[in-house]
D-xylose 1-dehydrogenase
Amino acid sequence: MSERKAALVTGSTSGIGLAVATAFAKAGMDVTLNGLGDAGEIESIRSVLEREAGVTVRYDGANLMQAEACTGMVESAIGAFGRLDVLVNNAGIQFVSPIEDFPVEKWNAIIALNLSASFHTIRAAMRGMKERRYGRIINIASAHAHVASPFKSAYVAAKHGVLGLTKTVALEGAMFNVRCNAISPGYVFTTLVEGQIPDTMKARGLTRDQVINDVLLAAQPTKEFVKVEQIAGVALFLTSPAADEINGAALNVDGGWTAA
Ligand code: NAD
């Protein structure tokens, strides 16, 4: 393809999503950012990225808890760039609690954002991708799409669901040059991880250092947090011709966590 690719990365105002959007823009893709946060800070991220990468970077503040918002965001992105080549479903939240105390509204919110939003965006993007005979869909899953940890019932259930969705979409797109893959990070030090430290301290009666070393990195044999740039690099690879025959896969970037 000689024309610039158009990408949409959900939850790209911070963390992994921002790193993926940055890598895509710097590789010459036009990008739609999405996510929550301070309007001024987001505009600053958008304008700096646009200037530094020399591509068009737009922002859509859709709250992806709602189906219509997911659909509207995809339609606007297609309207702005004429098509959608690359869709990254990354927006996600976490909540940590023993299941008997797990708030029902937290379960509903995690399933809505971490699983259902991906269904809604893919549903809205798929027809155009099939018609154009090109699409690369990347779902940011987790090591928790493959294995469980206690106190994360909603997150683990949602991420296992993301893998099922990924494989199904991969089969549906296979004959249309639409690829769908997942990336399964281990622990990446972002606000999402930072935010669950106090809850894990409370749920397990541990100190902050104990949570980091004995809970979070206990599962990661390298004893290192994954860097957001490393996830971005894998995402960029999945949009490259070298990855054209990778379909329905989950690429684990977890320092060996799920090898154990
Ligand atoms: P983060 O908190 O830094 O970023 C989450 C993004 O999602 C932000 O841009 C936020 O604004 C956005 N978001 C939150 N609620 C939203 C909503 N209702 N609508 C739209 N956007 C919303 O988190 P992160 O660590 O970068 O996580 C990104 C993804 O990676 C998530 O799906 C997460 O489950 C996954 N993941 C993270 C880790 C990790 O260790 N950080 C590990 C495995 C998987």
User: Anything to note?
Assistant: The chain is about 50% helix and 15% strand. Residues 11-17, 34-37, 63-65, 90-93, 113-114, 140, 142, 185, 187-188, 190-193 surround nicotinamide-adenine-dinucleotide (CB under 6 Å). Residues 179 and 246 are 7 Å apart (CA to CA).
